[in-house]
Amino acid sequence: MNLQIVTPLSVIVNEEVQSLRAEDASGSFGILQGHADFLTSLTLSVVSWRTDTTERFCAVRGGVLTVRDGRSIAIATREAVAGDDLDTLDSTVLARFKADIEEERTEHVETTRLQLNAIRQLVSRLKPGHGTGSFR
Asked: Average pLDDT, whole number, for the chain?
């Protein structure tokens, strides 16, 4: 089977594989040659696959996995790091991915809070009798 792992900026993996293991919200699953067409949303996790000679890994920051015709596996993800050392990917890369997600959530909450405060200020200035104009 052909495996492709792509991010918006590059192709991380493009190689022939014998099997693949990945994880979605329901848990870990495997894919072998001849698998039925399949579409799922991956969690932040490490994807693993076997070639004829080795086992390889790639940390993914979520993403979408598709299987087509039992011969093609494609993973589209926001960010991915491929490597041969599972421990490093699991401890270092996934920890960084998780920290990045938390930072983005915090920034999103703060941005939303600032937008709501700006809207409140605008609305308070539009009330009748406030400022120089009058709305009647």
From this structure: 87
Q: For residue 83, how many other CB atoms are within 10 A of its CB?
A: 15
The answer to whether the pTM exceeds 0.85 is no
Fold of 2-119: ATP Synthase; domain 1 (2.60.15)
Whole-number Å distance between alpha carbons of 65 and 45: 13
Q: Where are the domains of the chain?
A: 2-119
Q: Are 49 and 22 in contact (CB under 8 A)?
A: no
Task: Please give the Cα distance from 25 to 63 (Å, whole number).
Answer: 12
Distance CA 74, CA 64 (A): 8
Under 8 Å between Cβ of 60 and 10: no
pLDDT digits (tens, 9 = 90+) for 40-61: 999 888 999 999 889 999 999 8
Which residues are bridge partners to 49 per DSSP? 20, 56
> When comparing pLDDT for 117 and 108, which is higher?
117
